[in-house]
């Protein structure tokens, strides 16, 4: 689970906890207040006669503090309700009690007159079957509960506001920089070697991490450049002696009589030629970089037709076909791209029997152009398929036709420099498809 999602879950859990806790506080407070009112009502109905006399005295003028907000009355067996004492603040109050209804325990009831909508009410029995009714309005308690609910809601909102601010802060300091770092790292992996991790807020962990990663990238960049320069220099240095070696071998090949010496000179020349190719391939590999590409619009159909006719010239008896959708174009280094497709085509000629057909295919899909070179040859064993792109990779059949072992590594380098992807597919029934997926680029639309 991402940190962002965990944060969202934590905030949601906090929200639920706040609502549940607020609800529990309200419920328990309501129960407490109701019990207080009920205790007052119960105490008065417990001694009905004394309460009635107290009420009559209070009504006559000697109003006591305890009875100031209580309604006391009687219900005759006939059903006639008589108010003995009404609350000072609500003189017209009349609780809803049915004739003869006995309520030993206080209950909630609505009213038939007066301001208070609800009361807690109980009855006691007086002499002669008359009932003493005691009712206390819940209005004040309800208002207090309303205030408490509002206070809780405001406190909850304040807590959420603070938590929200903390979440925004954490996202800005930690999560947003991590997302940007991931994008930058993806771009670097995809070939943007000069891209660096963007600055994060000063003093944050993300800023330290970004600085450390940038320092590491710079160091890797430097050591890669040094290695590249070393290979390029070494290849340059090897070119001249190899040319000389080949020249001497060619010069003396026709002059020697002794067949063993002649054979030795022929082999020296062949090996020198192979080494020369190797040196050229090494030089190509060291120069493959996005910065060295000469980008321009490429008509993929035309490029594949050119490669196909070159392959056909090299092996006239081979069946080479081109299949492309019309108007497939992309922005790329045409020379390098042709070199890559040519290398794949040449591999097909070298590693498959001449009876195997070779197909060059291209199509555009979702802002990318897919170029495939496939053949009906023997294929590549699955366990060796991933390795074929490695430098000097040897698969089990060995190296046919004096290849340098750098052909596919150069193809991979060209595709990576273009910001593309590559894959080799070899189904069990045989044949290989080398697939290059390249970003179409901004000028790719239309012929
Ligand atoms: P090489 O110079 O040996 O051809 P590459 O890098 O071009 O080096 O290819 C690596 C290996 O992949 C080859 O040695 C070969 O075994 C295998 N390979 C390449 N293309 C094909 C193909 N079309 N069919 C079968 N095997 C292939």
SSE diagram, text form:
Layout: H1 3-46, H2 48-59, E1 71-75, E2 81-85, E3 94-95, E4 107-113, E5 118-125, E6 131-137, H3 139-189, H4 205-253, H5 259-287, E7 296-299, H6 300-314, E8 320-324, E9 329-332, H7 334-351, E10 358-365, E11 368-375, H8 382-385, H9 407-417, E12 421-425, E13 432-439
The structure holds adenosine-5'-diphosphate.
Question: Number of DSSP helices?
Answer: 9
Distance between the termini: 46 Å
Shape: rod-shaped
Order of helices and strands: HHEEEEEEHHHEHEEHEEHHEE
Arithmetic mean of pLDDT: 88
Q: What is the H level of CATH, i.e. the homologous superfamily of the largest domain? A: Histidine kinase-like ATPase, C-terminal domain
Strand elements, count:
13
Largest sheet strand order: 2-1-6-5-4-3
Portion of residues within helices = 40-55%
Q: Report the radius of gyration as a whole number of Å.
A: 47 Å
The chain-level structural class is alpha+beta
Q: What bound compounds does this protein have?
A: adenosine-5'-diphosphate
Largest sheet: 6 strands, antiparallel
The CATH C-level class name of the largest domain: Alpha Beta
CATH architecture of the largest domain: 2-Layer Sandwich
């Amino acid at each position: 689970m991402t940190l962002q999602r965990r944060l969202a879950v934590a905030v949601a859990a906090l929200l639920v906890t706040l609502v549940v806790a607020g609800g529990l506080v309200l419920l328990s407070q309501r129960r407490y207040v109701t019990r207080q009112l009920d205790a007052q009502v119960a105490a008065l109905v417990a001694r009905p006669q004394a309460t009635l006399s107290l009420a009559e005295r209070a009504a006559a003028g000697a109003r006591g503090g305890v009875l100031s907000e209580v309604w006391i009355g009687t219900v005759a067996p006939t059903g006639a309700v008589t108010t003995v004492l009404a609350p000072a603040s609500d003189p017209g109050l009349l609780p809803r009690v049915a004739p003869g209804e006995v309520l030993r325990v206080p209950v909630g009831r609505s009213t038939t007159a007066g301001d208070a909508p609800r009361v807690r009410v109980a009855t006691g029995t007086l002499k002669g079957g008359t009932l003493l009714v005691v009712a206390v309005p819940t209005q004040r308690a309800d208002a207090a509960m309303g205030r408490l609910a509002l206070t809780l809601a405001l406190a909850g909102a304040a807590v959420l506001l603070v938590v929200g601010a903390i979440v925004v802060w954490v996202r800005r300091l930690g999560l947003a920089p991590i997302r940007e770092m991931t994008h930058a790292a993806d771009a670097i992996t995809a070939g943007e070697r000069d891209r660096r991790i963007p600055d994060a807020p000063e003093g944050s962990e993300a800023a330290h991490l970004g600085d450390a990663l940038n320092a590491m990238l710079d160091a890797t960049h430097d050591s890669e450049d040094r290695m590249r320069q070393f290979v390029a220099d070494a290849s340059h240095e090897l070119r001249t002696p190899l040319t000389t070696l080949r020249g001497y071998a060619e010069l003396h090949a026709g002059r020697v009589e002794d067949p063993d010496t002649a054979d030795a000179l022929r082999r020296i020349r062949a090996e020198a030629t192979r080494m020369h190719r190797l040196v050229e391939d090494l030089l190509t590999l060291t120069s493959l970089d996005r910065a060295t590409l000469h980008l321009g619009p490429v008509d993929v159909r035309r490029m594949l037709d050119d490669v196909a006719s070159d392959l056909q010239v090299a092996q006239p008896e081979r069946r080479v076909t081109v299949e492309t959708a019309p108007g497939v174009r992309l922005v790329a280094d045409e020379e390098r791209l042709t070199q890559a497709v040519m290398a794949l085509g040449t591999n097909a000629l070298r590693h498959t029997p001449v009876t195997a057909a070779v197909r060059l295919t291209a199509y555009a899909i979702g802002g990318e152009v897919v170029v495939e070179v496939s053949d009906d040859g023997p294929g590549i064993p699955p366990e060796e398929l991933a390795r074929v792109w490695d430098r000097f990779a040897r698969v089990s059949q060995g190296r046919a036709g004096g290849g340098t072992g750098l052909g596919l590594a150069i193809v991979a380098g060209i595709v990576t420099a273009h910001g593309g992807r590559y894959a080799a597919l070899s189904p069990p029934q045989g044949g290989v498809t080398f697939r290059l997926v390249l970003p179409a680029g901004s000028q790719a639309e239309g012929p």
